[in-house]
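Q: Is it fine to ask for two folds in a single conversation?
A: Yes, each is treated on its own. Send the first.
Q: Here.
A: Result:
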Amino acid sequence: MTILNSADLRNNLASILEKVASNRQPVLVGRFGQPKAVLIDLFTYNWQKQTIELVKRIDTLTASERETLDVLLDDKARNMLFSGLEEAGKGQLIPLENF
């Protein structure tokens, strides 16, 4: 994970935000040599937020919510899902007739 000091962040904010968003890789921001904050892309933040909300109510989840949680917690399944969503967002879809 990349660690930046606060001066680097301040001087390069636009390009750092672009890298965080496009690479989906968190960046630690430090001060006086100690990490103080983490920058993450919005997609990852929303995924983490949804996962935390589901875990909070683990005892009352419906079957479909449990399945969603399983997908979100499984790295391979989550990456496949996110990749598919990204392809769909770019219009890279395969017609159903081709299956």
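Q: Second one now.
A: Result:
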Amino acid sequence: MHSPDFFKNPTTPYIEAFSLNTISNQVKMLTSLDEKSNDISKNLVLYGNIYMDISTNFPMYNKEDVEFTEFPKIKDAVNQDINEMIYQQNNTYIIGMFTVTTILILTFVVLQK
């Protein structure tokens, strides 16, 4: 036989069905999963109703701005962070160049007098 820890993943609370030992524990786990699934379904209906309420009562609200079809991807977030970092780095470089140029001009003017 195998040890119950063989199928455990340290990053998730995943449990193998045969590691629950008894049928009653398996039934409890399935009942819990079914209740969570029903809660998620109810929340999706609630979010859909709120979405429709907002989109019909606020004409300036654009339905295309918010899509509930898929979760945001990590790759998109990383690209957005990289673009923001580049934008901030470019602004810092421009401000630094203005500062250095100003100091050089002021140094030249002071040394001429």
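Q: Anything structural to flag on that second result?
A: Two points. Residues 72-113 form one domain. The chain is about 65% helix and 0% strand.
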